[in-house]
Amino acid sequence: MTSLIRGGILRPLAARLFPPGPGTVSGPHGVLPPLLIVLTFVSGLVDAVSYLGLDHTFVANMTGNVVFLGFALAGDRELSAAASLLALAAFLTGAVAAGRLRRDGEAAGMFGPLVAAQTVLVAVALALTESGAGQLVVIAPLALGMGLQNAVVHRLAVPDLTTTVVTRALTGLAADPWGAAAVRRLVSVVALLCGALAGGLLMLRHGPRWVLLAAVLLLAWVAVLGFRAHREPRRVTSDR
């Protein structure tokens, strides 16, 4: 796993997303960009579970959740206002908690711990699902974890890699000339699509167990790499 950071696959991917500047061997965000792409894929996974199995509710895409809440309040009986409200409340609770935990200038240092906490929350959701818990009970830890994820990603402010929302990415792809930013936006859109596709296929054929297990494993991997990446010093090239 260490080799993935030291000259392995993460650094070339990060360099493709954020080309290094003069005198450096890595971009301004180190190996975080590829890890954010993995989190984007995970967002698609968990939203597949929540939308297809938990009262047509999103736990990652809060824009859709707000719209669904409006539809439910308007009288759509296929949507649950209680589920949407719970998802929104849990998401905001996670975001507030992450905001209180972080300190100025330490967003990169909080990335690993907060993704680790999200891993635990998704594992709790998996355990609740296996125990036959009600849908609302499972929504809460999933949305809480996504709130943590979105808060640390917001603080990191890596351009074009929000991990949950692709509307701006699609707009940029259509409106701006091709370049490194367009590559990031395209990869972000494809990652979310692939996560939703993989999650949907697993969910419809096998139920939530394997989707949530895949999310737990990916999040644990990202958390470990996030811890290790933060400890590694930024390397620069020699001018000799």
Quaternary status: single chain
The CATH class is identified as Mainly Alpha
CATH topology: Growth Hormone, Chain: A
Number of helices: 10
Counted beta strands? 0
Mean pLDDT: 87
Helix/strand class: mainly alpha
**What is the radius of gyration?**
18 Å
Unreliable segments (pLDDT under 50, ≥5 consecutive)?
233-240
Percent of sequence in beta strands: under 5%
Which percent range fits the helix content? over 70%
> What coarse outline follows from CA principal-axis ratios?
globular
Number of domains: 1
N-end to C-end Cα span: 32 Å
CATH arch. level architecture? Up-down Bundle
Characterize the largest beta sheet: strand count, sense, and whether it forms a barrel: none
Task: Note the run of SSEs as H and E.
Answer: HHHHHHHHHH
